[in-house]
Amino acid sequence: MSETRSAQAASVIRHADVLIVGGGLSGTMLAAQLLRQPGERQILVIEPRSELGRGEAYSAVELGHTLNGNAARMSVDPDNADDLTQWLTEYIAAGGWPESDQQHVPVSELFPPRGIFGLYAQQRLAEAQAHSHSTIEHIRAEVIDLQVDECSTRLTLDNGQQLRGAFAVLATGMFPATRTPQTTSSGLNAATVDPWDVEAMTQLDSQSTVLIIGSGLTMVDAVVSLEQAGHRGPIEIFSRHGLLPHVRRQPPGWADFLAEDHALCSPRQLVREVRRQCHAALDQDVDWQAPLDTVRAHIGRLWSQASEREKRQFVRHVRPWWESHHHRSPPLSAELVARLHGEGRLRIHAASFKGVESSASGEVRILLRRRGEQQTTLVTGAALINSSGIEYDWRRVDRPLPRQLLARGLIQPGPLALGIAAHVSGAVLDVDGHVSQRLFAMGPPLRGMWWESTAVTDVASQAKALAARLAM
Ligand SMILES: Cc1cc2nc3c(=O)[nH]c(=O)nc-3n(C[C@H](O)[C@H](O)[C@H](O)COP(=O)(O)OP(=O)(O)OC[C@H]3O[C@@H](n4cnc5c(N)ncnc54)[C@H](O)[C@@H]3O)c2cc1C
């Protein structure tokens, strides 16, 4: 029966101009930008989720799961930095997000809940659609295979359907880290909790000990969820370097010192100069975040110019510092983490995660090696939250599409095996290094090309440039 159904579906090949694989923020912003291009084209976005524009990040239902930058920094319109502020002003005036008035700051300084940001992205897509001669359709399915010939691309979906398009774009986002503890024993299944699942957290004993692996922004979300769920017990956080993200403040402007000095390029030189600038700022009573924030605009250039050795040095020595200083926490969440830390209820440990031991009692037992120690330590808690991050190496991603693309030689790993290799236009490189005329990528899959290729503003500017390229 299922074979017949898939054979029937496979015989129906739909055609389109652009096939977008993934309808998170990247795929949705690309669709919106394509709709704004002159001419008529048919765009299909293939996304298993019920709504476009959300992905993992903007499906958040918890109001405390906010953007990590304020509205002034998170426009999806590269030509209008105030776009989110303007949309949010209207949204709040229409009665949306009533809790925002407790913050007593201008709309541009609010850190919107990510679920509301998802609505904004959807509305911008709908507006682009309303004014376009092109069409867009959301097909709810997973792409499991992709083939490319000289004139077209062909996708196979998990329902057996086939789609053919002049171009295909990989907007598949981020894949969870393979370091995810394996949930093999039933005891562990019961004790492992998703960082964003407030409902599951309400089931925990409110005084129980919760263990968290990873200390970045996903951990911050998890702590917000635990608090919201009524958890009041100890929270033990383990990460390799034991660093907590800094709080995001609103620093004043600072001279763009990297624009003036293109000779600076090695990680060592960069760190030395950034430190010097931060000290200079502090000497003038200016927030150290001011000079640091000027670096962001140059990261893509610095990363792509760096040799492989320098990239490795950056990842090994600078990355933990960059993550905690640059990927900063929204103020309300940071306040909560700081309060729990100050009360001694939340503790952060520098330790490497080594594995999980099954436990008949329903508790979770994890093996760790604390920094500077040789032996492993067993730690027990009532629940384990994995917030250890993202798997950027596609060779380790256990999903059909990455596997097929690699097996067909249509892609090759990006620098340091971060994501996939591509030309500056976003056209992917095949296994022999040829630049594809048909297959493109954007957002997190291009991590290895730009280092920062994930945030709202990265995705928004890539969407605009790629739409212009595809419409040529
Ligand atoms: C929890 C979280 C919070 C974040 N917060 C911020 C923030 O505050 N500020 C900021 O600037 N950035 C933030 N980011 C980063 C960034 O904005 C997001 O990663 C952004 O969602 C990237 O969009 P994307 O569409 O590329 O990826 P995703 O949102 O991951 O979407 C990719 C989509 O592709 C689909 N997909 C994958 N494979 C296939 C396939 N084979 N077939 C069909 N569909 C497929 C998935 O279902 C998914 O919906 C956050 C990220 C996360 C995960």
TrEMBL record:
The family database entries (PANTHER family) matched by this protein are listed as:
BLR0577 PROTEIN
Q: What is this protein called in UniProt?
A: NAD(P)-binding protein
The record lists the organism as: Pseudomonas karstica
FAD-dependent urate hydroxylase HpyO/Asp monooxygenase CreE-like FAD/NAD(P)-binding domain: from which residue to which, for each copy?
20-174
Query: Taxonomically, which superkingdom?
Result: Bacteria
